Amino acid sequence: MLTPAVLTMDDPKKLRTLEEIRRRRTFAIISHPDAGKTTLTEKLLLYGGAIQLAGAVKAKRGRAAAVSDWMDIERERGISITSSVLQFPYHGLAMNLLDTPGHADFSEDTYRTLHAADGAVMLLDCAKGVEAQTKKLFRVCKQRKMPIFTFVNKMDRPGREPFDLVGEVESVLGIGVFPVTWPIYRGAQFRGVYHRLRREVFLFDGKKGGSTQASGAEVVGVTVTGIDDPKLRSEIDEDGYRRVREEAELLETAGDAFSMERFLAGDVSPMFFGSAMNNFGVAPFLDTFCELMPSPTARVSNVGLIEPDAEFSGFVFKIQANMDKAHRDRVAFVRICSGRFERGMKVKHVRTEKPVRLANPTTFLAQERTIVDEAFAGDVIGIYDPGVFEIGDTLTAERSVEFEAIPSFTPEHFARCVMIDPMRRKQLKKGLEQLAQEGTIQLYRPPVGREGDMILGAVGRLQLEVVTHRMKSEYDVALRLEPMACEFARWVSKRDGGEVDLGAFDRERVGIPAVDVRGRPVVLFAGAWQLSSAERVFLDVVFAETARGVISRRE
Ligand code: G4P
Q1: Please, are residues 452 and 425 in contact by the beta-carbon 8 Å criterion?
Q2: For atom 24 of ligand 1, which residue has the closest CA?
């Protein structure tokens, strides 16, 4: 967290930067599809005043215009594929919500987005508890030791016992849980929550709320001096009171007191209960979230920790082509890690050591893009990319800094790309190269001197479908993908630094040789058995899971 830096009032610009950074809260919501992420996101935006009408975030079944989904395919399928960045104010704070795709196939994009966040909200369906996708995403947050909040959703529906859910999060995810709010009744009778830290009850009026209401149905919290306060008893009926009292007592005696230190280290998760759809428990959650969630902290780099109040630095965590079909542009999403950014600023692109002027940075309320004049550590800005940026690239005021590498995953699905109209070969190449730079897919071509179709590699099968769809709608290229019986790729290099003879893999019939977009030699294998054979045949070759460290033939 930001410690009061050595600043004096005679340094007003720096002081303001510090104030602005302190206001930032940059986080992501992680969940299994259908837990209610879209609904919760929408409610957070409503509470922040960023949108006026619930239902604007995702237009399932053709409701209002979609805000956070960009692509037709997403709308058709009702899933969110690309991550978007949503900024909204809340009680004097500047919230940056990095929206992560919920579909299991798009995990790679989600991992990168989590890398750009400072904390996460883990959303659970009260009937389902910890699900497969939640576990995967949680692991990334845990690795990064991020503060994690838990919101148990759909409390208006029959679900599991809250104590059960606490136990499951603790045992399955290996993190401590501190229930901050506790439900009063559940299911159809769900009446409200008791806020343990504030000693306040929030009661709800089920008749008033509704998924299309902007204001929500929460009744102003009733402050009580504690669980014994007679006021609490008069607010809910005898039965409900007895139960919440017993449970609250059990929580006090059985659990530890809330530890800010353990929370910040990602060791204990504050848990909240509610129903996003009915605006139940969202405000008490959001308010406590704002109190506990830290502003941007120092980031690990190759030259040590970079404090958020240091001079400008940031990294590209996502590249998106053709966000706006009318403009045919490519946008690089940059997470600012330190300092202040100013429109038109000249920064250093560390990988190429070249200066770049950032002329028209934008912030996002999804499709609505606004030019920003300034931005601060914690913010995400979109910058026009003329084709120079790659995921993981660092931008700085002048130092050569590299941040922790963004995790990269090797593809598991491969397909040969057969073009239907040979007249559009140029567009095909351009389109596929752009999608590969975005990180949507990995692209390979046959080694030099051999004719053949390009090969696509993706972490999830759905990504391949997206490529076919986007190539048609964005580049007007029809193509057919023929799945290949390959399971994984290995980047190959010679132990002695010499050049690998890719043709030898063909001759020995062990794997399919290719080169990646940057000209690095790669071999695709049908399975572990084939890799073992290749390792036995080519004793002088190193088979690496990622491209890192493999020298490009062109470089
Ligand atoms: P996702 O983005 O995590 O995939 O979930 P989404 O918000 O789309 O919610 C999935 C379904 O769960 C939706 O119903 C949504 O209305 C419902 N839902 C979300 N929060 C709550 C809640 O607090 N209580 C209850 N009872 N339901 C909730 P759907 O029928 O799939 O779509 P829709 O027609 O309602 O949009």
Answers
A1: no
A2: 154
Parent domain of 216: 28-80+101-292
pLDDT of 148 above 90: yes
- Is 353 in contact with 369 (CB distance < 8 Å)? no
Residue 344 belongs to some domain of the structure: yes
d(CA 423, CA 105): 32
Quick count: other Cβ atoms within 10 Å of Cβ 355?
A: 10
Would residue 238 count as lying in a domain? Answer: yes
Quickly list DSSP for 413-440: EEEEEEES-GGGHHHHHHHHHHHHHHTS
Q: Which atom of ligand 1 is nearest to the CA of 61?
A: 34
Give, using CA atoms, the residue closest to atom 25 of ligand 1: 154
Query: Domain with 372 in it: what CATH number?
Result: 3.40.50.300
The last residue of one of the domains, among 292, 308, 327, is 292
Q: Is the pTM of this model over 0.85?
A: no
Q: What is the pLDDT of residue 24?
A: 96
DSSP string, 49-85: TS-SSTT-S--GGG-S--SS---HHHHHHT---S-EE
- The structural domain count of the chain equals 3
390 and 414 co-located in one domain: no
Q: What is the CATH number of the domain that holds 479?
A: 3.30.70.3280
Same domain? For 333 and 391 the reply is yes
- Rg (alpha carbons) of the chain, rounded to whole number: 26
- Which residue among 31, 37, 39, 190 has the greatest number of ligand 1 atoms within 8 angstroms of its CB, and so is best to mutate? 39
238: part of which helix (H) or strand (E)? helix 238-254
Q: Tell how far the Cα of 102 is from the centroid of ligand 1, in angstroms.
A: 13
114 with 200, same domain: the answer is yes
Ligand 1 binding residues, C-beta < 6 A = 31, 33-39, 60, 102, 153-154, 156-157, 275-278
Closest ligand 1 atom to the C-alpha of 31?
A: 3
Q: Ligand 1: distance of its center to the CA of 489 in Å?
A: 38
Whether the CB-CB separation of 521 and 550 falls below 8 Å is answered with yes
Per-residue pLDDT, 101: 62
Residue 366 has pLDDT above 50, yes or no: no
**Do 141 and 266 meet the contact criterion of CB atoms below 8 Å apart?**
yes
∠ CA(393), CA(397), CA(399), 5° rounding?
75
State the distance from the centre of ligand 1 to the C-alpha of 30, rounded, in angstroms.
15
Asked whether residue 8 is domain-assigned, the answer is no
Ligand 1 atom 6, closest CA: 36
Is 102 buried (19+), middle (13-18) or exposed (0-12) by CB count in 10 A? buried
The residue whose CA is least distant from atom 18 of ligand 1 is 36
Q: Which of 29, 77, 277 to mutate to test the pocket of ligand 1 (most atoms within 8 A of CB)?
A: 277
Identify whether the C-beta of residue 149 lies closer than 8 Å to the C-beta of residue 121: yes
CA of 152 to the centre of ligand 1 (A): 13
Categorize the per-residue pLDDT at 104 as very low, low, confident or very high, splitting at 50, 70 and 90: low
